[in-house]
Fold this sequence. Notes:
Distance between the termini: 107 Å
Radius of gyration: 35 Å
Helix content: 55-70%
Shape: rod-shaped
Number of helices: 6
Strand order of the largest sheet: 4-3-5
Amino acid sequence: MPSMAIRFQCAACSQPIEVDDEWAQRAVACPYCRKTITAPSESTLGDLTRIPMASPLIGGEGTATLPTPGVSTYALQTTNSNPLAVAAFVLAAVMVLLLLAMAMLTASHALDLEQLQKELQPKPGMDAGSQVRGMLEYFDAQGGRVPAWLMALGVLQITAMAACAAAIVCGLLALKRPARRPLAVIALVSCGCVVLLFCVDLAAMLAGIGIRR
């Protein structure tokens, strides 16, 4: 005689499920919430289609154990993902590329940059207004406008600094997750070296100004 299906709602999550009638009044595992429930002696739901089958518990009553649930694909993706580490690494790489572009642009306009620095060097009795006038005179000599290479150099510098700051923030946040942590460490080390070089260069420039005064 074929077995009949007992259809009922899970006492834990209220989802409709079914079991074979041979499991009436016995413990089963809900396919939705994985809770251990007791199947009723007869159906309490109508003829519904596509109701998941509850899993009979392995072993006898009292020693029953739930079947081992499969590992969720979403859980694996969440564990192995660390988008902040990837973002930090990409931002650090962009920063390095921008710094290389700045170095190439500076090398190609070394003479123009040296002349501009001479115009801006503080002289005895020279105030801030005199420095501004000297810069304006330099721009007048270049056709009355800021040279394109100088504007490009400023844009590259600002963008590189923004990328460095964003990489540091993302890298520090990414360290909280173990996945892809080396990418975050590489990004932080790269940004740290750039910040250190910038501080050394700034200190040397300030020291030079103090000596000239």
